[in-house]
Amino acid sequence: MGNCLKSPTSDDISLLHESQSDRASFGDGTDPEQEPPPPYQEQIHVPVYHPTPSQARLATQLTEEEQIRIAQRIGLIQHLPKGVFDPGSDGTEKKIRECVICMLDFVYGDPIRFLPCMHIYHMDCIDDWLMRSFTCPSCMEPVDAALLSSYETN
């Protein structure tokens, strides 16, 4: 009986061209009848602050008084001494092994911040802590009182 294949007609060829052009313009698998997706919209990150230790609010929700207090707190934090963790060659600083906030061991080169009570912490950990509570997490000494008294003596 011979070959069952028939030769393509002009109608078959035009359908083939249409389906190829559809695939080229909608190669992502979307339906050509649907609207394209909306353009990517960048989300704006609004920082969260803690006007009191138990409250968390977006920066846009703070009162003017709270904004001033937080700006003062940020200014005080920036005046605290900072450095880089170096356990020292003589071993006297071996007793300081971990940041008590994150409970991770200090690693040579970690950015650290010193509080007036001489406790040290990872800079990111203590800065975040001090935005909530202006006391040392180890000895509970008020950080702002020590800072303000050091300004008065200078």
TrEMBL record:
Key words, A-Z: Cytoplasm, Endosome, Lipoprotein, Metal-binding, Myristate, Nucleus, Palmitate, Phosphoprotein, Ubl conjugation, Ubl conjugation pathway, Zinc, Zinc-finger
Subcellular location: Cytoplasm; Early endosome; Nucleus; Recycling endosome
SUPFAM superfamilies per record: RING/U-box
Stretches that traverse the bilayer: none
UniProt entry tagged with the keyword Transcription: no
Any one Pfam family match given in the protein's UniProt record, by short name: zf-RING_2
Keyword Chaperone appears in the UniProt entry: no
Any one of the GO BP annotations: ubiquitin-dependent protein catabolic process
Molecular function terms from GO: ubiquitin protein ligase activity; zinc ion binding
Compositionally biased intervals (Polar residues): 1-12
Region (Disordered): 1-43
GO cellular component, one term: early endosome
PANTHER family, per the entry: GEO07743P1, RING FINGER PROTEIN 11
Role played: Essential component of a ubiquitin-editing protein complex, comprising also TNFAIP3, ITCH and TAX1BP1, that ensures the transient nature of inflammatory signaling pathways. Promotes the association of TNFAIP3 to RIPK1 after TNF stimulation. TNFAIP3 deubiquitinates 'Lys-63' polyubiquitin chains on RIPK1 and catalyzes the formation of 'Lys-48'-polyubiquitin chains. This leads to RIPK1 proteasomal degradation and consequently termination of the TNF- or LPS-mediated activation of NF-kappa-B.
Assembly, per entry: Interacts (when phosphorylated) with 14-3-3. Interacts with the E3 ubiquitin-ligases NEDD4, ITCH, SMURF2 and WWP1. Also interacts with the E2 ubiquitin-conjugating enzymes UBE2D1 and UBE2N, but neither with CDC34, nor with UBE2L3. Interacts with ZNF350, EPS15 and STAMBP. After TNF stimulation, interacts with TAX1BP1, TNFAIP3 and RIPK1; these interactions are transient and they are lost after 1 hour of stimulation with TNF. Interacts with GGA1.
Protein known as: RING finger protein 11
Taxonomic placement: Eukaryota, Metazoa, Chordata, Craniata, Vertebrata
